[in-house]
Amino acid sequence: MFYSFHRSKRLLFKSSLRYLITHPLQVLLAILGVALGVAVVIAIDLASSSAEYAFTATSEVFSSKVTHKIENASQNINENHYAKLRLRFPQLTMAPILEKSIKLDDFPSQHFKLYGVDPFSESQFRDFSMNTMGENQLVSLFSESNAVLISESMARNNGLNIADKLYFTIDGKRNEITIVGVIKSNSKNINAALDNVFICDISVAQGILNRFGFLSRIELSTNNSDILNQIISDLPTEYRLTQVENTSNALSQMTSAFRTNLQAMSLLALLVGMFLIYNTITFSVIQRRSQFAILRTIGVTHKEIFFMISTESFLIGLIGTLLGLFLGMLLGKGLLVLVVRSINDLYFDLNLSQLVIGEFSLFKGLMLGLIATLASAWVPMREAFKITPQENLIRSSFETKKQSLAPKFALFGVILLIFSLVLLFTFRDSLFLSFFLLLLVFCAYALQIPFFVTKIIHIVRPVAVSYFGNVAAMTLSNISNSLSRTGIAMTALTLAVATAVGITTMVGSFRYAVTDWLDESLKEDVYISFVSSAGNGAEGEFTHQLKTLLEEYKDIDNISTRLWTKINSQFGNRPALIQDLPEQGFQKFQILGDNSLISYDAFQYQNTILISEPLANKQKLQVGDSLMLLTDRGEISFQIIGVYRDYTTDQGLISMSRNIYVKYWINPRISSFGLYLHPDALPDVFIAQLKNELATKNRDMFTALKIRSNATLRERSLEIFDQTFAITNVLRMLTIIV
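^ that's the sequence the OP posted. Answer follows.
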């Protein structure tokens, strides 16, 4: 009996090996189906987790020991307040910080941060402080003008060396910084956190940024409630003591929709790959029905046949998954560029060039590939397990059973489709649930395809036969009579095409909506922004000179200004757009719903705000509600007088008149100017004239400005839109390839 058992195993092994060797293309397609599906999932997971790791590492390195911070709305803390706190609480762990985002002339596509610190206070907060600085670095940091330190990884990734000079422009002034040292650390977190940061003495930062006597914030480390209460009682009205939140959680909340979209696309590619696996295993079962019948008649049990097919499926899945892991790491490096660019465009500045390969991501991909393979092969394995030797020899019995199931699957698919669509329109606010229900819609659609294909064949057969004769009849009959093979192939192809068409339609429709929004929002003829300002704008003196110069031009009818900033609200820090608009510019807001409270005078002269549609939806706000905002003069309530359409950010946007903003905030900065030209003036001619005059009379101002026409800015905005959806298009193509 023991000999018979091993003889049976050897027989099955030889039979399986012979089949796999004689059908290499079929096996290769199954392996590629698994590999590509796993590769897409792994690539997305690695790229997303790398971006999240970079942000989390920054949070841990810079803020892990910080419990509270003192700040105000405009991030202008008088350094005298820090001195008073230091004298009153000498034992309290605290540190002054001055930071600002900058863009370097030599690396215009990357985002960097200038981080001014007090080296003597830093050792209590961060591990890259004086403890890791050499004596020569410390001397240079204090003695040399505009001296900065960089991390070893930043030097390596950007080809930077000690004594290198870098340049950037702020407030129309070209600034120079000199690298005087490199911070070396064996910590991955520190290297990741400092990958885009220039460390300098706080006095150097104040000089470069022209913020003498001011700090961005004061960081504290204490849980002593008595000390905290004393600090609060002594704070000026415009200052606030806040507890440091978990910024990694803030990242997850901010980018959750973005990551969910990517994961849904990658899982869809794996789903299409599962159809390919199912088809391959089904083919192998059908092709060997007579062989299985012979094996059963000579004593091989149905369990042994089941084991043979499951082993084949496992090996195909294992080889495909391992290949997919390798391809996923290669693909992840390319997708990382697209993910980081999308995060920079949509959320916050992130500079990341290295793909972080986590063991858990690889393990997750391995398990996902094997489980997907075995799950997709389960049905054909059970078919081989259940069929008797007599049925194995009668091919028609197998196909008859499949054809009899098609109407039942179609009916179930119709019921599932109706159920999914009802729930999808009922629970539209839940992104995760919407994706799950969308998956059910896909499954419901897939269940109906074989049945409706056979009906379509029945309808078109007479016409096809009349034109193409018996060849058409045989072809169509083969499709309907071999439903076990053709049904899955047609379903997989249909879903792939449906995915491609659906994504193309979605992106195209959204692009059309954004184009329409840009046409309504960009009312000015010419736009002037500041080079290398990283979105922060320029100080009042420089912008005042520019505005005075612009007012001398007769071709300009009106001038608008914008400031992009953040305002602390009851819902946390929110992006805000501060605008000084003429009445003709106020018409650009595409108001949604109730407009009973909105008027130009109310927006311009009263404590009112407009909010974008995403903010209204996320926080359940509506016209007439009040929003409490932290200003430099304390907390002030502002009434919401309108909700408008906006595609700038999915986090929501607060719009406020500059007249009201300057009453409560001490922030004279301006991010950009908009010029309304006389109807007879030609924008391109005016821009050429303005550039020529600036280049001749004020070279510094000319190099600090970016001047674009309405058409150019609109074109650039659509380029950013296309860049944002580049990763979606890549995933769409990968799904079609699978």
